[in-house]
Amino acid sequence: MPQFVDHSPPGECVFCRIARGELPAALVHQDELTLAFMDIGQVNPGHVLVATRRHAANLFELAPEEGAAVMHTAQRIAQAIAHTFHPPGLTLLQANGKEGDQTVFHFHLHLLPRHANDGVGLLWPRKEPGMPTLLGYAQQLSAQLASGQGAPT
Ligand SMILES: [Zn+2]
Known about the structure:
The protein is of the alpha+beta class. It is built from three helices and five strands; from the N terminus they run αβββαββα. The radius of gyration is 17 Å and the shape is globular. The model has no long low-confidence stretch (mean pLDDT 93). Residues 13, 15-16, 55, 106 line the site of zinc ion.
């Protein structure tokens, strides 16, 4: 399992403190497994974070039911964003690890309303290594899944 560094003790990070009501946040929704609140740094109006209620540093620490709950909440919030702010586009972004551009080490998913020429960019340096290489990658991942190590921990 990949090792990522969580810079706060579990239960003491900023999102855990929001979940306990110890820090102010503009809450949109909360339920048993998730909470949704406005990102303090609004890239566009209606920019929401969906976080797990329990401290999980990243995707690798999510329980399967938490992953499902996050996506369930995200879809509901996305519908609300669409009806309220009418963005022509919406981007989901979820980062894991410092090298993956994660900055708060408590699992969260960005729901980012998008507009034409809104200044948001994604560097996406595509490479096309060819089918033999792709088949090799796929075989490695399939073997990993078959070994049982692709199962949630
Ligand atoms: Zn936390």
